[in-house]
Structures are given as C-alpha cells and as structure tokens.
C-alpha cells in the first residue's frame, strides 16, 4: 500500500511539474569556450507548448527587432513571431517544420546536468548537427525547432565546434503570461515573414524607384531633377545619422528599356561645401564651372577641386550590359538571360560625407536612346561591430567622369599630354591614416582604343611617385547571361566576353585604396599620368578617373 502511495504521489508531482512547466537556460560556446557577452537562450516548456526566447527579451532589454518561437502541442504547429518595433509585430505558422525533420537516432549517450541524453544526427544546409536529448523531463522542447519531438533537447552541436548547451533547469511555479501569443498578432505567409524580418534588421534609404534614364525630356517628376536630355537624374535625400562601425551599401537595379549597348554609369553625390557646386553647372551650363587646362586646347569643366569648388563625389561606377531585359527575346540555345542587373557595393568609407545630411544624389547612364534604361536605387545602413573609430573625413579631389556628357561636358581626354591630370588642393588640418580612394576605367571602343589596350596608371603625390598599376578586367565572360544583345564574332566570342580596361558590361568597377600616411596642413599636389592612346579618325580614347582623399 505504501509503495502504491509513493508511486501515485510521484506521478502526481510529475504531472503537476509537466503542467506548470520548466525553464531551461542555454549558453553558446565555440571550440569549448563560452562566448562572451551573449544573451542566453531561454526555453519554457510544459505539456501544452514550448516557447523559445531569451533573457533580454524576458527582461525587456532586447533591442528590436527580435524573434521568439512557440511550438503548440500536440499538433506541433510552429509559430514564429517578430517584434519589429513598439507598434508592429508579425507572425507566421509552419505546420510541418517539426514533423518533417529527417533525424538519425544513435545509441550514444552522455550526461548533461545529470540527465541521460541520447544522440540524434541530421544535416542542415551542409552543416552536420548533433542533437542531444533526454526523455527524463517528461516534456518536449529545445533551443531550436530541431528535435522537438524526440524529448527535451539539452545540447545542439554544429560541425563539432559550435554548441548551445543547457546550463541550468528550473521548475516553474507559474507559467508567465507574457509568453502567450498576442491576440492582435498579424499573421503573414512564411516568405513575407522572412522578407519583413530581414528588412527590419537594417535601414533602407530609397532614392529612385523604376526611374527612366534616357535621351529624352518626356519623363517628368516633382521630386526628381533631370539634366543632359534626361541622361542624368538627381534627387535630394535625407540620410540618417550613421554611427562608427556601421556598414553602408549602395544598391542599384538596372534594366534596358530600349538601349542595346554597354554604357558608362555613375552614382554620385554633389558636395555643397563650397561656393560653387556641380549643381550650378547642371542648372546654369557646364561652362560656369572652373576649367582644367592641360595645354591641349580643351577646357575640362568641373573635374578638379579648386579654392571655391568641389567636384562630384562618386559612390559607385558601373557599366550597363548589352540590353538586359528589353532584348531578352534574342534567344540562344543553353542561355537563360537575366531579367535585370543588380549592382551592390560597400561604401562605408564614404559615410562621413552623407551622415545626418540632406544630399543631392545623382545617377548617370550615358546613352542616346529615347527609351534608355530603368533604374531603382537605394542606400542601406547596417549595424556594425567596431565602434572604436570615428567616421573618415573626406576631400573630393578630382572626377573626370563626364556625367553631363549629353549636356556638353568634355570627355576625360586630358591624358594625351605628359602632365595628365594635376590638382593642387589645400588641406585645412593635419591628417593621419590618409588614403586616396581611386577609381579608373579606360574607354575607346575600337581595336586600338584604350578600352581594349592595357595602360599603366601612375600617381604622383607632391611630385614623388606614389603608386603605379595597370587596371584590367579579364573576367568579362562571367557575365554573359546579362548581355542578350552582345554581338557575336566569327571566332565564337561575344563582345561582352572581351577583356577591358578595368570594367566589364554588367559590373561595378571597385575602387583601390592607396596609402599616403600622414599629411601636414597646407597645399599638396596629386597628379595622374596615363599614356592615353592616339585618336584614329573620329575615334578617340578617354579615361574616367575619380579620386577622394580619406583621412582621420
């Protein structure tokens, strides 16, 4: 009788324990070392549900957005919820995530916090996963969706070196009401949920949305300025404060709406720090801007820094492919053309020029087609890790990319003289960790033109050789599927396959960073020398180079 009483008492307390539930806290480790400054995962579980959350979420200290997960028993419906901000939360339900897992059960055992655990194995996205679970807690749960039906998962190990392990287990006196799913929760499909969650983790700064860049004045917009017969569009945009350590990207999507050719493109901002700006030239005529004269008889408008003028600051140099989207009907066997081209570049080093400011952002694609191209442009700002350094200071020095090509701005042909491009500028303060952010592309689209002939770029600083290299791209064939209208030659190559002077149709040309070191306040001179090729008839070569000084 006494034995029966003890058995019934034990059964009663285990049932009560299961109903009230347990709380399990987990720690993350890497190569057997506990990771510092982590927010421990918390798992609440009883016979009716499992809730996966964290210590900071439960204490109200978690930064939004944050996620928590609920598994309802016995249906195993898997609820995911994100608190996007104080006013918005979204959720989704996956009825199959828990039930459809492919797990291999082994006979291996080990003790975790005094409980006998069994090992199960699986693979997720080519990662080997070991799941250690116990059946002695009388409830099901774990720190992720994996193994929820096996028992209670006390450890998950990925690839043998990254683990999340139970560090303590508590019996609950009461189930926290804060764990109940909100009645007002808005449910969306899983793909929408993932998209909204992803976008909530960074700041998007939209600039252009499906805007046309074409040789036509037909397009009109109240908020967008258009210049050079519609080949340049400009918009004033408020950029939020960018903190040290944050990462900034510029992202452009482009498709042809009628132009079949590879064209030079540029995303830029117009500095407003001096008496004159590039916007003055756009609005009043390029000849109102300072000239650069290298003695070849031409006047190059607005390309160098002067005492009262700053040239445009280039964020990204890109090149359109041959007719992506519009000319996708030009079928070739075995080739499925892209419907657009995405250009994306990290420009964090330029954050100091745009942080917490209203800036004029421009986009240029040189073309003579009335339908031209369609673009969408945005900046994205992402949380970073290193806040130890302040944002870089910037000084735009030169930019020979003639974004006002269709508005009368000269091509960058000043390298046909030995002097090339020489700029004397004044630094107002002593500077450390000075770099020149340099972008260069060669142009001249015939056999002997500089587009197809490697040319050495030599940079001199205060008349001393600083850096020399030959910019060249020989990977252009990798982007064939973005070039449906590219011409095909008798030798089996396509025009878009050909190597070029630092660019390929359908790609970004990335900057190089040239170390200068420390500089004293005062005047300095930078000179760029390129052995520009000779003209042939009406064909000529030119170079688009931009240079920005970065320093602390």
Task: Put the structure in a nutshell.
The chain has 552 residues and is mainly beta. It has helices spanning 2-20, 55-59, 190-199, 278-284; strands at residues 22-30, 33-34, 41-45, 49-54, 66-72, 77-85, 88-94, 104-112, 115-124, 127-134, 152-158, 162-171, 186-187, 202-213, 225-227, 232-239, 247-256, 264-270, 291-292, 300-301, 313-319, 341-346, 357-365, 373-382, 393-399, 421-427, 431-443, 457-461, 464-469, 508-509, 512-519, 522-529, 542-551.
Report on this model:
With 552 residues, this protein is mainly beta. It has helices spanning 2-20, 55-59, 190-199, 278-284; strands at residues 22-30, 33-34, 41-45, 49-54, 66-72, 77-85, 88-94, 104-112, 115-124, 127-134, 152-158, 162-171, 186-187, 202-213, 225-227, 232-239, 247-256, 264-270, 291-292, 300-301, 313-319, 341-346, 357-365, 373-382, 393-399, 421-427, 431-443, 457-461, 464-469, 508-509, 512-519, 522-529, 542-551. It has 2 domains: 2-196, Clam (outer membrane lipoprotein receptor (LolB), chain A), CATH 2.50.20; 201-551, Peptide-N-glycosidase F, N-terminal domain (Jelly Rolls, Sandwich). It contains 4 helices and 33 strands. The strands form 6 sheets. Strands 1, 2, 3, 4, 5, 6, 7, 8, 9, 10, 11, 12 and 13 form a 13-stranded mixed sheet that branches. Strands 15-16-23-18-21-30 form a 6-stranded antiparallel sheet, with helices on one face. Strand 3 and strand 4 (49-54) form a beta hairpin. The radius of gyration is 31 Å and the shape is elongated. The N and C termini lie far apart (84 Å). Residues 1-17 have low confidence and may be disordered.
């Amino acid at each position: 009788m006494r034995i029966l009483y003890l058995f019934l008492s034990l059964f009663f307390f285990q049932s009560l324990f299961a109903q009230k539930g347990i709380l399990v806290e987990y720690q993350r480790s890497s190569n057997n070392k506990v990771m510092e400054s982590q927010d421990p995962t918390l798992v609440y579980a009883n016979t009716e549900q499992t809730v996966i959350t964290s210590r900071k979420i439960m204490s109200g200290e978690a930064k939004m957005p944050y996620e928590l997960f609920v598994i309802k028993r016995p249906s195993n419906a898997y609820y995911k919820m994100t608190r996007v901000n104080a006013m918005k939360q979204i959720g989704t339900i996956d009825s199959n995530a828990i039930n459809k897992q492919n797990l291999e059960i082994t006979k291996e055992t080990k003790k975790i916090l005094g409980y006998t655990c069994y090992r199960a194995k699986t693979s997720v996205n080519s990662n080997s996963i070991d799941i250690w679970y116990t059946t002695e807690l009388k409830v099901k749960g774990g720190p992720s969706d994996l193994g929820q039906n096996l028992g209670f998962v006390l450890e998950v190990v990925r690839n043998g070196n990254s683990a999340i392990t139970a560090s303590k287990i508590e019996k609950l006196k009461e189930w926290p009401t804060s764990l109940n799913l909100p009645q007002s929760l808005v449910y969306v499909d899983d793909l929408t949920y993932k998209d909204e969650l992803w976008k909530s983790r960074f700041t998007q700064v939209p600039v252009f949305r499906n805007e046309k860049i074409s040789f036509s004045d037909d397009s009109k917009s109240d908020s967008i300025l258009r210049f050079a017969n519609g080949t340049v569009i400009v918009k004033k945009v408020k950029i939020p404060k960018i903190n040290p350590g944050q990462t900034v990207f510029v992202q452009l999507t482009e498709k042809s709406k009628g132009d079949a050719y590879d064209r030079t493109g540029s995303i830029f901002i117009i500095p407003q720090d001096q008496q004159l700006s590039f916007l003055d030239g756009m609005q009043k005529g390029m000849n109102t801007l300072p000239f650069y004269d290298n003695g070849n008889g031409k006047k190059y408008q607005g390309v160098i820094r002067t005492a009262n003028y700053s040239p445009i600051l280039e964020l990204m140099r890109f090149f359109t492919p041959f007719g992506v989207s519009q000319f996708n009907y030009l079928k070739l066997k075995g080739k499925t053309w892209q419907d657009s081209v995405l250009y994306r570049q990290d420009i964090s080093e330029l954050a100091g020029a745009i942080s917490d400011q209203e800036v004029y952002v421009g986009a240029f694609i040189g073309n003579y087609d009335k339908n031209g191209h369609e673009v969408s442009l945005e900046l994205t700002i992402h949380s970073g890790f290193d806040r130890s350094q302040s944002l870089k200071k910037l000084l735009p020095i030169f930019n020979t990319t003639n974004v006002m090509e269709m508005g009368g701005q000269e091509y960058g042909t000043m390298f046909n003289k030995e002097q090339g491009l020489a700029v004397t500028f004044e630094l107002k303060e002593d500077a450390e960790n000075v770099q020149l952010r340099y972008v260069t592309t060669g142009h001249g689209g015939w056999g002997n033109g500089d587009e197809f002939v490697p040319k050495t770029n030599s940079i001199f600083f205060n008349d001393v050789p600083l850096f020399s290299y030959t910019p060249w791209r020989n990977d252009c064939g990798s982007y064939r599927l973005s070039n449906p209208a590219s011409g095909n030659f008798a030798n089996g190559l396509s025009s878009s396959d050909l190597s070029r002077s630092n660019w390929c149709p359908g790609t970004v040309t990335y900057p190089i960073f040239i170390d200068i070191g420390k500089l004293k306040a005062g005047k300095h001179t930078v000179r760029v020398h390129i052995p520009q090729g000779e003209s042939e008839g009406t064909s000529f070569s030119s170079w688009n180079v931009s240079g920005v000084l970065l320093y602390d």
